[in-house]
C-alpha cells in the first residue's frame, strides 16, 4: 500500500512545461556553443547588481525579509502606485500559480490562446481548471476571440501576454484598454508583461489600480538579466494583491535576489543600454533569417520568431539540425505557429555561431 495521492494530482501527467538546455546537454552529452533558446538575456545583469550581490553574499545565513519591504517600496515609487498594489514573488511563473489558485478550482473554465505561454496552462491543470483555448490570428493573440470565449464560458480568468511568447508580437495600449473595458467585471485578466521593458511604450496602457479585474505581471528575468535569481511582481488593486499574501510562500524569496532586484531597479541607465543591445540583436537575428530566405516576425521581446516557410515537421527538422550543431533554440508547437523556430537574443559571439550554422541546418533539414 502506498500513500494515496488526491485524484486530481494522481490524474496529471508528470511533465515539465519546458525541457531546459541543461537537460538537453546531459542527453546529448555535450554543451551548447550558443544558448539562444530560453529567452534569457545573455548581456547579463548590470555591474552594479553583481557588485551588490557580492557585497551581501556573506549575509546568506539570514532569511529574506518576508514582506519584501524595500523592494516593494522601490517598485511602488518607480511605478507611482502604493506598496499595497504590489506583490513580489519568485518570478512571474510563481505568481501565475498563486493567481490561478485564487480563481480556479476543479472544472473552472479558464481562457488563453492556443500555443501561448505553457507555464500558465500547467498551473491551470494543477488546480483542475478547464482550459479553453483560442487560436492566434495573423501570429497575434486574438483579443476579440479571447473576449468571446470569456463571455461564452462565463470564465473567471483569462490570460494574455503582451508582448507575447512564443511569437513576439504585441498589441497597442488602446487595443488592450478596449479589451479590458469590454471584460465582464467578474473576470480577472492576467496581463503578462514579462517583456514589457523591451516593448514600445505605446504597447503599455497606463497603470490603473482602480481596475479590480486586472493583474499585471512583470519580471526581472528578461531585460534586467536576472532569470536565475527568480524575481517577479504583480501590480493590481489592493484587495486582489492582499489575496496573494494569504497563500504565498512568505520565505520563498532569496535574500540576494531581493538585493539584486533592488540594485537592478536603481540602475535604469544600464537597463536602457541593455534594451538597446537587445533591439540590435533582434535586428541582427532578423537580418540573418532574411539572408537565408526566411521571414522574421516583427518582435517586441528579447527573441525573434522565424517563419521557416514550410510546415511544422520542417521547422522541427531545422531546430534539430541546429541543436546537432550546438545551437540551442526552441520553437512554437501549436498548429499554425509550429512552422517557426524561436531564437533568443545573445552576445555577438553566439549570434556569429547562429549565423554560421543556420545555412548548414537549412541545407540538412528535410
Ligand atoms: C510570457 C512569459 N511570462 C513569464 C515568463 C517567466 O517569467 P519569470 O522568469 O519571471 O518566471 C516567461 C519566460 O520565458 C514568459 O515568456
From TrEMBL:
PROSITE patterns: AA_TRANSFER_CLASS_2. Its EC number is 2.6.1.9. Pathway: Amino-acid biosynthesis. Keywords: Aminotransferase, Pyridoxal phosphate, Transferase. Pfam families: Aminotran_1_2 (PF00155). It is an enzyme of class 2 (transferase). Residues 36-350 form the Aminotransferase class I/classII large domain. Its cofactor is pyridoxal 5'-phosphate. GO terms for molecular function: histidinol-phosphate transaminase activity. Transmembrane segments: none annotated. Belongs to the class-II pyridoxal-phosphate-dependent aminotransferase family. Histidinol-phosphate aminotransferase subfamily. PANTHER family: HISTIDINOL-PHOSPHATE AMINOTRANSFERASE (PTHR43643:SF3), HISTIDINOL-PHOSPHATE AMINOTRANSFERASE 2 (PTHR43643). This is Histidinol-phosphate aminotransferase. It comes from Phyllobacterium ifriqiyense.
Amino acid at each position: 500500500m502506498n500513500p494515496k495521492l488526491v485524484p486530481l494530482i494522481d490524474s496529471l501527467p508528470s511533465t515539465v512545461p519546458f525541457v531546459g538546455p541543461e537537460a538537453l546537454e546531459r542527453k546529448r552529452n555535450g554543451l551548447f556553443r550558443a544558448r539562444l533558446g530560453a529567452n534569457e538575456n545573455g548581456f547579463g545583469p548590470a555591474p552594479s547588481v553583481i557588485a551588490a550581490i557580492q557585497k551581501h553574499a556573506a549575509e546568506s545565513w539570514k532569511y529574506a525579509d518576508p514582506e519584501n519591504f524595500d523592494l516593494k517600496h522601490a517598485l511602488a515609487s518607480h511605478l507611482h502606485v502604493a506598496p499595497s498594489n504590489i506583490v513580489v514573488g519568485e518570478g512571474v511563473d510563481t505568481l501565475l500559480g498563486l493567481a490561478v489558485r485564487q480563481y480556479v478550482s476543479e472544472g473552472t473554465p479558464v481562457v488563453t490562446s492556443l500555443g501561448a505561454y505553457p507555464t500558465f496552462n500547467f498551473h491551470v491543470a494543477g488546480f483542475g481548471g478547464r482550459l479553453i483555448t483560442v487560436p492566434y490570428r495573423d501570429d497575434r493573440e486574438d483579443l476579440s476571440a479571447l473576449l468571446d470565449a470569456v463571455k461564452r464560458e462565463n470564465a473567471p480568468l483569462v490570460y494574455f501576454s503582451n508582448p507575447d511568447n512564443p511569437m513576439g508580437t504585441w498589441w497597442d495600449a488602446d487595443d488592450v484598454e478596449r479589451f479590458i473595458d469590454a471584460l465582464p467585471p467578474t473576470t480577472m485578466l492576467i496581463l503578462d508583461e514579462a517583456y514589457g521593458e523591451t516593448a514600445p511604450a505605446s504597447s503599455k496602457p497606463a497603470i490603473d489600480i482602480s481596475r479590480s479585474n486586472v493583474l499585471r505581471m512583470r519580471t526581472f528575468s528578461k531585460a534586467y538579466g536576472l532569470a536565475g535569481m527568480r524575481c517577479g511582481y504583480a501590480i493590481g488593486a489592493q484587495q486582489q494583491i492582499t489575496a496573494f499574501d494569504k497563500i504565498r510562500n512568505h520565505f520563498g524569496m532569496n535574500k540576494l535576489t531581493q538585493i539584486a532586484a533592488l540594485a537592478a531597479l536603481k540602475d535604469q541607465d544600464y537597463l536602457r543600454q541593455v534594451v538597446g543591445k537587445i533591439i540590435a540583436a533582434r535586428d541582427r537575428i532578423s537580418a540573418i533569417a532574411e539572408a537565408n530566405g526566411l521571414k522574421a516576425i516583427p518582435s517586441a521581446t528579447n527573441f525573434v520568431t522565424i517563419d521557416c516557410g514550410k510546415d511544422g515537421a520542417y521547422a522541427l527538422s531545422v531546430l534539430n539540425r541546429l541543436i546537432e550543431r550546438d545551437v540551442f533554440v526552441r520553437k512554437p508547437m501549436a498548429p499554425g505557429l509550429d512552422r517557426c523556430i524561436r531564437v533568443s537574443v545573445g552576445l555577438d559571439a553566439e549570434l556569429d555561431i547562429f549565423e554560421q550554422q543556420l545555412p548548414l541546418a537549412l541545407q540538412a533539414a528535410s
